[in-house]
Amino acid sequence: MIQERKIPRHVAIIMDGNGRWAEQRGEERYVGHMQGVESVRRAVKAALRNGVEYLTLYAFSTENWGRPAEEVNALMEILCKSIVAETPELKAQGVRVRMIGDRSRFSERVRKHLAWIEAETGGQEKLTLVLALNYSSRSELVRAARRLAEEAAAGALDPAQIDERRIAGALYTDFCPDPDLIVRTSGECRLSNFLLWQASYAELYFPEVLWPDFTEEEFDKALAVYAARDRRFGLVK
Ligand code: IPE
Ligand code: IPE
Ligand code: MG
Predict the structure, then answer these.
(1) Distance 150 CA to ligand 3 centre (A)
(2) Catalytic site residue 16?
(3) Tell me: the pLDDT tens digits for 69-124?
(4) pLDDT tens digits, residue range 162-182?
């Protein structure tokens, strides 16, 4: 039987393995992060070509602040430079960029770059590229609980009205559907505080390839793995 072509609407990727890629070559870790930007370009292209509507990339976790200052600074530098360098092409490709995570911890310079790329690409609608930056799923849930509690305390929300839809609506991801497919490169099989609520029924895929080696073919392979999966959502089929 010919397999029906099932394209995920939303693909989320935990881009892991940059450090190991660099270390294997005797290079500093930031070299791996720079090379990782090329994989981002390829993933965006492949997502567009396949008709994926949302591509979420886990680029910096809240826990990543605990890395050596040189690495964190290099990552911030790469982020700002990439925003400036990539925005024209992203716009030309019809890509809208949104950020999820707590932006208040970033320097003013980084915050300005983020606000700029979001405003600059806001009108595009082929693909929404979601960057998870200073993102932590547990912090996101705490923030959501606090927001709903504040509304309730102000008398604007009856606690009995709190349901899954309201919680989802209080998360950073209120504008996008849940991920259908979550990919984590480098062979690590964990979520590391990424989209814990949203991942409830996501298909998970853990290829061995390190993020800097993630090609368009690897992206296509992930979609093929997804298409062969049997999603049941708790039902009998
Ligand atoms: C992922 O690569 C990028 C970030 C976390 C920013 P790593 O830097 O975690 O690479 P490994 O896991 O050490 O190889
Ligand atoms: C997860 O990777 C975060 C990002 C890819 C941005 P880490 O490399 O930080 O995760 P752990 O420490 O291996 O769980
Ligand atoms: Mg890692």
Answers:
(1) 36
(2) yes
(3) 999 999 999 999 999 999 999 999 999 999 999 999 999 999 999 999 999 999 99
(4) 999 999 999 999 999 999 999
> 178: which residues sit within 8 A by CB, 6+ positions away?
10, 198, 199, 200, 201, 202
For residue 102, how far is its CA from the centre of ligand 1 (angstroms)? 20
Distance 31 CA to ligand 3 centre (A): 14
Which mutation among 14, 15, 18 tests ligand 1's pocket best, with the greatest number of atoms within 8 A of CB? 18
Q: What percent of the chain has pLDDT over 70?
A: 98
Q: What is the 3-state secondary structure (H, E, C) of 46-58?
A: HHHHHCCCEEEEE
pTM of the model: 0.97
Residue closest to 54 by CA, chosen among 5, 125, 114: 125
Query: Which atom of ligand 1 is nearest to 20's Cα?
Result: 14
Q: Which ligand is nearest to the CA of 61?
A: 2
Reduce the DSSP state of residue 183 to 3 states and report it. strand
Full set of structural domains in the chain with CATH: 4-227 (3.40.1180.10)
